[in-house]
Amino acid sequence: MNKLAALLLFFLLGLHAAPQLAAQEQKPGIFYRITGNGLKDTSWLFGTYHLVKSSFLDEMPAVKKAFASSGGVVVEIIADPAEAEAVQSMGMLQNQQLSDLLDQPFRDSLDAELKSSVGAGLEQLNQFKPMNVTLTLSLVHMMKNQAALLGKYTGLPLDAWFATKGKESAKEVKPLETLRQQMELLFNSSPLEEQVLGLKTFIRRKKEMTGLGDELIKNWFEQDMRAMNAVYEKTLQVSGEEDRLIKERNINWMKVVPQWIQQGSHFIAVGALHLGGEYGLVEQLKKLGYTVVPANPK
């Protein structure tokens, strides 16, 4: 798997309730309680899946209760329509077209795939950066493959719901990064030649790529953090990609998260893949002396 294609797949995550767990099992899930190390108030850590809508939380009353009881909310970004419009150009080519970067055989196969999947051909998407096209195709196939499961839920995407409800409840909502920083990582951290390779990989190995995405969704709904992290680690090994998407961002986030939870109770909602593994938020908080244990979302 091309390393850029791997980066794209897991950017979508970041991220049916599982059976209730006995407390002693301490199975790593997607919802955690943070105490100890001098904290006066309990904080909470919840791993989202970015495409799941907020009515899913009706199945997780303990999560909603923890959110309501928290004084502050931490999310990856705060959506700002003005900012979104300003950074839109980051995903677009300047002074050239996508077709200029592609050989004729691949132009033809990409055009056919776009018409079949998106309903618009290469001519309509010719100003998109290769990564932007790959992202578009990935989302289309993921939404199609998981239509029945994702269609069960309504409302805002989980991350947006926590930010919006936090503001409505007069909570302080704190972003871990800006939309510009996320878009810079996605569209400008790799040269266009490498982005083309990622797009070719997706087209030629579409079944494998979408299968990995489907596996991660299944793991998330089963609240199996170990399985999610194993898929991610496997993909990094195959792709040769450095862990910039999760590891480096987590390290940056940990420069502020401990300060915030020391100030009072916070509900932290980020993509679920940011929780697990050696550099996951759970382990990093533990290394600082905090007690971080799985909480029953029911």
Keywords, separated by commas or semicolons:
298 residues; alpha/beta; six-stranded mixed beta sheet; 14 helices; 6 strands; 50% helix
Strand content: 5-15%
Give the helix/strand class: alpha/beta
User: How do the SSEs run, as a string of H and E?
Assistant: HEEHEHHHHHEHHHHHHEHE
The residue-averaged pLDDT reads 88
Indicate the overall shape. elongated
Major β-sheet strand ordering: 4-3-5-2-1-6
Count of individual helical segments? 14
- How far apart the termini lie comes to 38 Å
Number of domains: 1
Q: Total number of β-strand segments? A: 6
Output the radius of gyration: 20 Å
Fold blueprint:
Blueprint: H1 3-11, E1 31-35, E2 43-48, H2 61-69, E3 72-75, H3 81-87, H4 104-117, H5 130-145, H6 147-150, H7 158-168, E4 172-175, H8 179-188, H9 192-204, H10 206-221, H11 225-239, H12 244-253, H13 257-263, E5 266-271, H14 281-287, E6 291-294
Parallel strand pairs: 2-5, 3-4, 3-5
Antiparallel strand pairs: 1-2, 1-6
Helix pairs in contact: 1-5, 1-9, 1-11, 5-9, 10-11
In short:
This protein is α/β, with parallel strands linked by helices and 298 residues long.
What does this protein look like?
By secondary structure, this protein is an alpha/beta fold. The protein has one domain. The protein contains 14 helices and six strands. It has a six-stranded mixed β-sheet, with helices on both faces. A hairpin with a 7-residue loop joins strand 1 (31-35) and strand 2. Helix 1 (3-11) runs antiparallel to helix 11 (225-239) and helix 5 packs parallel to helix 9 (192-204). 37% of the residues are buried.
